[in-house]
Structures are given as C-alpha cells and as structure tokens.
Structures
1.
Amino acid sequence: MKLSTFDMVRAWAALTGLVLAAVYFLVTILGHEPSQMVTMLVAGIGGFELFLVGQDYLLRGREHG
C-alpha cells in the first residue's frame, strides 16, 4: 500500500499525539506536575486530526452527493 505524503503526515501526527498523551498520563500517575507544553502539544495535534477527519467527511460527501 502506497501512502501519499499527506497521509504519512497524518500518521506521524497521530502517533506523536498518542506518545505525548501517554507521557502526560505517565507523569500525572507518577505524581508530578505535567508540563503545560505537553498539554498544549496534545491539544494542538488532536485539533489538527479532528479538523482533517471533518474535512475528509466533507470532501467524501461532495464526491458521492
């Protein structure tokens, strides 16, 4: 399966977001104060992914409708 560059960016963004979320929860479980930078990165990457999912649904709806 050959992925486009855009699909690879999405895959790396999703993987990075999952790793950062795991780091956030690990730090929280260990009783430390998580960095605000990690929180903002997780939120930013999550927003990016949600935007792309919405855009995919919109574009697919236009193709079929």
2.
Amino acid sequence: MNFFRKYKIYLKLATCLFQFNSYADFNNELPTNLNLQENKETHSNTHNPSNTVRKKYENDKKEKINTEKGTKLPSENSDLAKHNVNAPVYFKGNSAEGSRKTGILNLLGNVEIIQDDTTLTSDKAQLFGSTGTTFGSGSRSIQKAIAIGNVHINKKSSLNSPEMKATANTIEFLVPQKIMILKGKAKVWKAQEYVNAEYIEMNLETGDIKLKEPHGTVDPKSSANLNKNNEKKSSSKVTK
C-alpha cells in the first residue's frame, strides 16, 4: 500500500512539473510572427499603463493636427483677411489735442494713421481710447478712429495680393470689431476692379464687404467681353 501511495504522489508531482514546464516554455517554442508581437505589445501595455496613456496622447495629438490642417476658413485667401488687425496703431498730425477724462485725441492737419501694411490719410481725425487714460503712437488700446475730409486708404501689395486703395468723405475704423466703414462717395480699387457706393463696410478679419446704395461696379473681364461684342457687331454692320 505504501508503494502505491508513493507512486501516486510521484505521479502527481510529475504531472504538475510537466504542466509548469509546458506553460513556461510556451512563448519560447512559438515562432516569432506578427500575432506574437501583438500579444507581447498588449502584455507590455497591460503591465505598463504609461505606454497606453502615451499612445493615446500621441493619437489624440495626430487627430488634432489633422483636424486643424483640414479645417480652413472660407476667407483664408481674402486680401482683407490678411491684414494684421492686432498690430499697434501709429498716428501723427500737425497738431493734437487730447482729454484724459474722455479718452479722445483730436488730430488736425496732414493726419496719418498706420496699422500693419495699411495707411490712412485725412485732413483731421479723432482717436478714441478708454476713458480716464491716455495713449500715444504705437498704442494697442485705441478702440475707434474716425477720419474726416479728403480721406484715403492705401493697402500695400504683397506677393499674393495686389495693392488696394479706397476713398470716402468719412472713414470709421472700429478696432476691436475689426470693421472699417466708408461713408459718402466711397470708392474701392483693387487691381482693375472698382466698387462705388455711398456706404461700404469692410470686415478686416473675414474679408467680407457690404455695400449700400451702390452706384456701380467694374469687372475688367465682363467689360472686356462687352467691348469685344460691340466690336463684332460694328464690324458686321460695315461688311453688310
């Protein structure tokens, strides 16, 4: 009986050792292939949570970059939208009168106001800041500018956009709103295009332009086609 008991014990021990060795050598006996690599990565990520967090962060970052690249504003190619509305405002004139209480500065004679690549000239202008404060040329605290008399705007040309000019009796520049309003015989030129209206509102951020009481616009392509048609009609009459 003792012999059989010892035999059973040895048999159980041998079975356990066989199972243990089989499990321990399982990964070593398999060939290195794609499935094994994926299992190893999953196993390592399970034991190292920082790897999982790092991969999630990298994936989220890639998705964010792709979203930013794929998302573009419709006004991205607008000449007006390229104006840096956050640039400081520089100004000068023959004389200046200001009030700290009202935050208003009056410029008289040969007024010149410059922001980024856009220059405004006029006979006189009013600059509005915050009440109780003063500001000088190059300030970023100007809230509004109103130019009156012989007002002209010139936006310099660049590699991707032509020069733009504008005139009006009065021009109001709302700096925080990034809006420029031309009132009274307002005209805008860009390359060979021309717009004429009593009221022109330009959004310097989006590039949108609103017209009120337009007197007419000139499109060089349409006018050129009209001239060609008129020439054809006149030549056909002469032939007959």
3.
Amino acid sequence: MKKDRLEWIASGLNRYVLTKAEDHFLRTALEDSAENRPITDLQEERLETLYKQKSRLIPNKTAPFVPGPSRKASPLKVRPKPFKR
C-alpha cells in the first residue's frame, strides 16, 4: 500500500469513533509505515475493510446531527382563486 493511500485511510478513520483495538491497529500500521516497514496484505485488507465498514455504518462524529426525513403529513393543497376580470 502506498504511503499516501495509508494516510488517506487513516485521516478518514480518525473522523469516526474507533474501539481501542481498532485504534491500536491503526496506530501500529502508521508506525510501521513511518519506519519503512511494509504493510502486509492482510493488514492492508483489514484497513480497507475497516474504513468501508465505518463509513457505511457509523455516522461521522464531526458532522452535525441531521435528523431523518420527518413523517409529517404533507401540507393541504390550496385551490387557486378564480380569475376575476
């Protein structure tokens, strides 16, 4: 995995709340990369999967709360007034 790709995934994952194990894994992968140790295919796959999982299932922790669509009744239709001459 290229270093810039790893940094992009890490910055994306930092936007989400991670468990202790996930945070430790991410920090270890970044440290390995900083020390020019190659990341294994298994680590790379796990990082990609973790990012996809977090981005799909967990809301962004830095984004403001946006409620879902409300189930209010639609407004009443207003009849147009007849045209007067």
4.
Amino acid sequence: MTFYAIAYLYQEDVWYDLEKKEDSFDLRSTCFLPTKEMAQQIIDDELSIQYVPVEIEIESINKGVWSWSRGAVSHWD
C-alpha cells in the first residue's frame, strides 16, 4: 500500500501528525495521506517550505507491527 506523509526537511524521520497538528518522531497512521497532491496542499496552506511530501510504502503488517520504506528526501539521503 502506498501513502504519503509530510516530512520535516531538515531533520531525519520527523513527520507531521495531522491529528495532533504537530511534528512527531514516530510515523503513525495519523501521518498518512492518500495522495502527494493532498500532502502538498497541506504544506502550502498550513505549513512552510521546510516540509516536503514523501512516499511511504507499507510493505507488510503482521500482528499490528508494520514494516515500511520511504521515498528519497534530498536533505536526509
């Protein structure tokens, strides 16, 4: 399954939690959006250029534990 999350550009593995409306060090389901366009719209409307949309691929879910991979983030990789 593919989702998008909003990442803070200048600190690795910091995600924007849409439910809490704040940054989080944990990637949770409340960080997921269905499209890159939706993530970009939230960045444009509510956040700043310090955030970027990142593709998240859920690879497996086993007994509530998930494994995932992410797309490239220029300042992280």
